[in-house]
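PROTOCOL LOG
Step 1. Enter all chains and additional molecules of the complex.
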Amino acid sequence: MADVARRAGVGAITVSRALRTPERVSPEVRERVRAAIEATGYVPNLAAGTLKSRRSGIVAAIVPTLRSAIFAETVDALAEGLDAHGLQLLVASSGYSIDAEAQILRRMLGRQPDAVVLTGTRHAPEVRSMLRARAIPVVETWELADDPIDRAVGFSNRDAAYRMTLALAARGHRRIAFVGTPPEVERRASQRLDGYRAAMRELGRVADVAMLDELGVTIGSGERAAAALLARPDPPEAAFFVNDVAAFGAVQACQRRGVSVPGRLAIAGFGDFEIARASNPPLTTVRIPGAQIGRTAARWVVERLAGDGEAPDEGTPRTTDLGFELVMRDSA
Amino acid sequence: MADVARRAGVGAITVSRALRTPERVSPEVRERVRAAIEATGYVPNLAAGTLKSRRSGIVAAIVPTLRSAIFAETVDALAEGLDAHGLQLLVASSGYSIDAEAQILRRMLGRQPDAVVLTGTRHAPEVRSMLRARAIPVVETWELADDPIDRAVGFSNRDAAYRMTLALAARGHRRIAFVGTPPEVERRASQRLDGYRAAMRELGRVADVAMLDELGVTIGSGERAAAALLARPDPPEAAFFVNDVAAFGAVQACQRRGVSVPGRLAIAGFGDFEIARASNPPLTTVRIPGAQIGRTAARWVVERLAGDGEAPDEGTPRTTDLGFELVMRDSA
DNA sequence: GTGAAAGCGCTAACAC
DNA sequence: GTGTTAGCGCTTTCAC
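Step 2. Run joint prediction.
Step 3. Record the structure below.
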């Protein structure tokens, strides 16, 4: 920077200002600095800036995995929204482990992030204290929170499953099974199970819950689950899968066996992934706002940072519900 | 850190050493420092460390998009491999634009990354000079490079398409069409087209190239492309799609029209995504090493960094070909 | 094995 | 609108 300053015939601080607050520098000087920067190929060392200003321009995000298209979509939208405001994204995946999340967060905090974006609302106890101590904006995503660390944006997984279950019943399906994943692995999946149970209770019916045989939801696990349901002496009339990918596999399995969908087995999924429309018959499912969650998180971080870090009004709701949408297609 | 040092009754530098090179600190002192850190909740400020040591512990990665499962897989594997060695990943997506890539890279370099991972081998001219000036490890991914900036890891998209085209011919298909994306958008896609053309030339046949009607490859675009092929007075016998997702759509379109696959139209894809196995009939496709690319890039960065940043031996090949695999299933 | 001094490259605070 | 001074919190270097 000293180099650039010398070339432009100004002080170092003026170079800094030309870069960060150009409107406070006269146009001629601004131009001389620009030329000097170009001539030298100068790239500011942001570590030094961070050290002095206590503003890093980094946002830390932790997701369970990037392999699932759905979180990748959220991260992509988040990165895009932040980039537009000069913020950079530090990401890591926790592999669905809250202990890993806490450990990753601790290391990321050393980077002095200006904000943190987490997935879900269930965290190791130290996560809350670490973040409170920092007093930076925090956004929890993909779930609604009764008591968010700071702010949360998502939708009600429970309500979505509840409503879909009722919708399946309204279509005349009586014996409705739910096919999920082990609850300890995926909190959002277990919330869906809760919604299903609540709906069945309300309908005065008996819940019928099966589990996929893999932790990572795959087409194959859905196929096997469907086969298992069909092999029962008295198979259900409808199966509500925790995820479109598994539901898709189930449709395939039926097709191969000549079992008509929805005639003999109605099938519903969750997510409205691309595969849902591609299925034959197309999947009845729940559309969830993956990209919108990322965009909203980005917008919210940017707003808080622009507002000089002050906490939101007490009146402002701290949890934003982006909702979901039942998409009734032909599979159920 | 001064706080922790006081509590532990040692100098600040000893705290630093206990954290970074514990083996150089006596066990008793190490334990006292550990206790003091725990008591205070101390998290080191990495910006200060970076400033002094010129080692940030950050690796910068730029991908075209995270929405495509395939790059997300590479990034996930990369993050995992780096995390195991205490390196953090700064990511951004360029939206397939090399100008955006250059601009993002410039900003990322301000963060003093210890290494950079790029997608592809075609970059804006300033990218090469910026990176050469820094003399840090650079890995270009997803393609082979004649003259990598530093090192490249991927496979030959061209050769993969060439071999698949020959394999389709060997299966008895004569009129083989290729369905791709506009070459200016995706370099790797256009390399596949080149491979197809070369194979057709060698077979003494006329190349027959169609384009998908969307930039982002979707199931719907594949469906429409298949419909267009079938609507021709003299449809091809086989269609080789640049991507499994589109190929899957094509299979669906045929199924809906009662067109037998592969009887009346053989269909091949590219990628061996999960959807390929789920298709009915399952897709003949090319398996590509997405996660392995990420793992290899991570390993290589870690090695170079451990080796104190020295350049690799002149003898070491600078491009690693991870290969691909033809997966002949029932769709062609 | 431990410590003291110095300084990495910026920007906040204050002056003019 | 521009400059001066000081110092952010570490780690390097050198000493013991």
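Step 4. Note key features.
The CA atoms of residues 180 and 211 of chain A lie 5 Å apart.
Residues 1-2, 12-13, 16-17, 20, 44-53 of chain A lie near DNA strand C (CB under 10 Å from a C1').
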